[in-house]
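note to self: dont lose this again. the chain is below, predicted strucutre after it. 279 aa total, dont forget to put it in the shared folder this time
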Amino acid sequence: MKNIYDYFNEKIRQAILFYHDNFIYEIRLRINAPVILNTSSGEKILTGCIVNEQDIKDSFNRVTEYSAYAYEENLIDGYITVPGGHRIGIGGYMTWQNDKSAVVKNIRFLNFRVRHFIDGCSVSVLNQFSEKDLGNILIISPPALGKTTLLRDMIKNISNKKEGTSICVIDERNEIGGCYKGTPTIDLGVRTDVISNCSKAEGILMAIRAMSPKIIAVDEIGGESDKEALEYANISGVKIIATIHGKDVEDVREKLGSKMLSMFTSKVIIKGIGEYICC
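---
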C-alpha cells in the first residue's frame, strides 16, 4: 500500500518530513502559498516551501496514476480516495458538462485528508453495550474528531469477535475500507463485506437483497434517501451502525427528526479526539 508521502514530489515530501508529526490530519497544497499541515499539535505553516504549479501537477499525476481520464467520475465529485482510505479534495476552475455536472479543470488546490487507524479505540465504547444485542448505534461528532476512525475499529472488533454475525459496509466515498479497484486496503474484520462507490441508499438496498447482512455500517448519514433506506433496513431486521455530523443529540434531532433518532438505541457522542460519551 502506498504511503501518503508517495503522492508528493521530493520538494514537498522533504518539507513535510522535516516537520513530521505522528498525527497529520490534513496536508494542504495551494498554488503560490506555503504548504500547511493540520496536526494533533495545531496548524503548521511551512513558510520555506511555497507550492507552485508543477508541485500541484506532480501530486495530481501521482494520485490519478497519470491517467486523469480514468478518474473522471471522481473529479465530478471533487475528490479522489486512494489506497489506505486517504481522501484528496480538489479545487480550481469549474467547468460544466453537457449533463450539467461540474468538473474541476486547471487544478490549483489539493487537500490531502490523512486516514488514521487507531487499533482498539472502540473497545471502551463496545464494552458499554450488550454483547447479545448491540442494537442500532449512532456515532455523533463534529468534523475531524475521528468518527470514521471509531466506526472502522467498531466494525473490525464486532466482525472479528461476534460469532455468526455478518457486516456489510456501504462505503460511498471509499473512506471506511479504502477500497482500491473493489478490494479493501484496510482490515475491517473477517466477517465483513464491502459495497463501495455507490450511494448509501442504493448500497443499503443492494446489501439487504443480495448479501444477507446482520449489521449494516455507513458513514455520514443525513439525506432523505439515506433515512428511507435506513428505515427499510431497520424494519427488515438488520442492525445499523452509522455516523453523523453534529455536536450533540439535540443537534442531530433537528437533522434526522425524533422518529429516526429514536431508532438508534445507543448513541456515542465524540467530544474530542478519543473522548467518547455513550448514552
